[in-house]
Amino acid sequence: MWSEEAADIEQSGRSLTELRAIGPFTASFIARWLKDRPDVPVPPPIRDGFITYAYAREVVAAALGITPRAYADSCRMDQLKRNLQSGKTVTHSLYDAGYSSSSR
Fold first, then answer.
1. CA atoms of 65 and 40, how far apart (whole Å)
2. Which one, 42, 61, 99, 103, has least CB within 10 Å?
3. Is the confidence at residue 74, as pLDDT, over 60?
4. What are phi and psi for residue 15, nearest 5 degrees?
5. Residue 58: is it exposed, middle or buried by C-beta count within 10 angstroms (0-12/13-18/19+)?
6. CA 31 → CA 23, 54, 90, distances in Å?
């Protein structure tokens, strides 16, 4: 998705340094890449049917309406609440829900 965003910025005449964490050197590298994009090789047959981790995150986020991280945090919080409501101690509830350190 960043390539489309970079291409839009480049076409509008704005600087690529507007992108997060992009300095002048990286901006010039991206601009050269956008002008002469390399051919993307076809994945070998063994990779057919597999998706990338980034794409999997997009699919989960689209299906749930939240990021996988936010979903995991929500599940952890639900578990913590169930433990506390069942009468377990705060410490036991925290560790059981996956909060491994009391110093965070």
1. 31
2. 103
3. yes
4. -85, 140
5. middle
6. 12, 23, 54
DSSP string, 2-60: HHHHHHHHHHTT--GGGSTT--HHHHHHHHHHHHSPPPPPPPPGGGTT---HHHHHHHH
Q: Give, in order, the Cα–Cα distances in Å from 56 to each of 4, 45, 52.
A: 19, 20, 6
Separation between Cα atoms, residue 41 and residue 53, nearest integer Å: 19
* Sequence spans of domains, the chain: 2-35, 45-96
Output the CA–CA distances (angstroms, integers) from residue 76 to 19, 38, 80, in the order listed.
33, 43, 6
What are the structure tokens assigned to 32, written together? 């050269």
pLDDT digits (tens, 9 = 90+) for 80-97: 999 999 999 999 999 988
